[in-house]
Amino acid sequence: MQYELFYLVGERQEANLDTIKKDVEEILVSEKAKLLDPEVLEKRKLAYEIKHQRRGTYVTRRFELPENEDGAETEKESAVEKITKKLNLTGNVLRFIIVRADELPDLGAIERR
Question: pTM for the complete prediction?
Answer without folding.
Answer: 0.82
